[in-house]
Amino acid sequence: MASTLSLITANEPPAAGVGDRRRSPDEAQGRARLRLLLLTVGLGIGGTEEQIKELALRLDRRRYDVTVCALKGRGVIANELIAQGVPVVLLEGKAKGDARVLFRLYRLIQTLRPDIVHAFLGQANLGAALVGRLLAEPIVVWSYRDLDVWRKGLHWMLDRWAVRRVAAVTCCSDSVRRYVSQHMRLPPERITTIHNGVDRARFRAPSPMGRAQLGLRDHLPVVGTVCRLDEPKKGLAVLLRAMRLSADRGDAPAWQLLIVGEGPAREGLERLSASLGLAERVVFAGPRRDVAAVLPLMDLFVCPSLYEGFGIAIVEAMMAGLPVVASSVGGIMEIVRSGDTGLLVPPGDPAALAEAIQEVLGHPDKAAWFGRQGRQSAEAAFSVETMVERHGALYESLVEAAGPCRVMQQEKR
Fold first, then answer.
1. Exposure of 69 by Cβ count < 10 A (0-12 exposed, 13-18 middle, 19+ buried)?
2. Owning domain of residue 124
3. How are strands ordered across the β-sheet holding 282-286?
4. Looking only at Cα atoms, what is the longest distance across the chain?
5. Do residues 268 and 405 share a domain?
6. CA 139/CA 48 separation, integer angstroms
7. Are residue 355 and residue 402 in the same domain, yes or no?
């Protein structure tokens, strides 16, 4: 097993020891811990990966024995989990459709014998369902995280076939839930919405940074966004064109733009910025793990996505007390109440986006109101504690529904 699996934990144990779990005090008293495998595609920077990390770290360790597995790649989140002592398994897939990964996943689940496999994102969902069919042991949960408009008929046909082995499906927003229900033809009771959660404490401290550290000017308002640079989905070209429209208005306040994140569209966006004559007022900051320190440098947060499953960066901005302007699409409409916690604009409309940005920047009292209301709303609706609690309740209900045989199986371990 050590030759094909890369098991990485804080102490770097051999891969053959994956399934070696010592009995906890709860097990010694007859209450077995639930073995939970959180399965995803990769463990780089991203909203889904952050939620997996929070689950792995915050679920009650007296009740849950958590392992995290990625089909390919290591990434920043993997390193952070390892540093916190969470077992991480990398299956080292080389490309989409790498059949060896399925074989490695089969061997891992056979060795680990998890009670629950909770898969996140398409490839991981299918892998978990296929292996679950072969082993007929773990409870399998799927999670859909976005409005995957690229999915075609064949993708949904495969999912509809594989989902028959799945005990529950979770979605990160009601928008995604409706989308999945429509394409998967599942009854509503099979799908559960669990909104993403954010640790509010991270966004309460003042920033130790100054604007100059990111190449920003002190005398101009900062409009910012945090996202993967993935076009056309994220609408960043629309944002740059909105900035050009604002600059062409003689009566509008000038502003600078901060784009935090990395992705395949970066070079094209930099070229567009230059061609629009905006290069001197646009800062591409790259990927950062200190977003909580960067957000206070902004005066306004903008999310111009053309489609979005949730929008966790918006929640983080609201918890930091920032006013928000965002597109009226998908899960964003479950986060932002237009006119109360921010402004919503039609997607793909540079003129409407420019107008909304100017409306907020030109009215400081309104910006402050949006910031206060947004923080209260985000903290009440999207706390990490609620997200973890709801996952725990789902897992417990699934184990209970599996019946006495499942309980006996746990107690024999």
1. buried
2. 6-14+32-197+384-411
3. 282-286, 256-260, 222-226, 300-303, 324-327, 343-345
4. 76
5. no
6. 21
7. no
**Tens-binned pLDDT, residue by residue, of the chain (413 aa):** 444 455 664 444 334 334 444 444 455 345 689 999 999 999 999 999 999 999 999 999 999 999 999 998 789 999 999 999 999 999 988 766 677 899 999 999 999 999 999 999 989 999 999 898 888 779 999 999 988 766 667 888 888 888 888 999 999 999 999 999 988 888 878 899 999 999 999 998 888 899 999 999 999 999 999 999 999 999 999 999 999 999 998 777 799 999 999 999 999 999 999 999 999 999 999 999 999 999 999 999 999 999 999 999 999 999 999 999 999 999 999 999 999 999 999 999 999 999 999 999 999 999 999 999 999 999 999 999 999 999 999 999 999 998 755 544 544 45
Residue 161 sits in the same domain as residue 207: no
Continuous segment of H or E residues that includes residue 128: helix 122-135
DSSP 3-state assignment of 46? coil
Q: Please state whether beta strands 88-90 and 343-345 pair in parallel, antiparallel, or not at all (unpaired).
A: unpaired
Residue 20 lies in a domain: no
C-alpha torsion 335→339→342→347, nearest 10: 80
Assess whether the previous peptide bond of 232 is cis (omega < 30° from 0): yes
Tokens for 140, please give them: 């399998």
Q: Tell whether 229 and 329 lie within a shared domain.
A: yes
Instruction: Tell me the C-alpha distance between 287 and 90, whole Å.
Output: 22
Distance CA 405, CA 188 (A): 27
CA gap 232, 269 in Å, rounded: 11
Domain count, the chain: 2
**DSSP 8-state assignment for residue 310:** -
pTM of the model: 0.89
Q: Are residues 322 and 362 in the same domain?
A: yes
Task: Measure the CA–CA gap between 35 and 290, rounded to whole angstroms.
Answer: 32
CA atoms of 376 and 28, how far apart (whole Å): 44
226 and 124, same domain (yes or no): no
Residue 191: inside a domain: yes
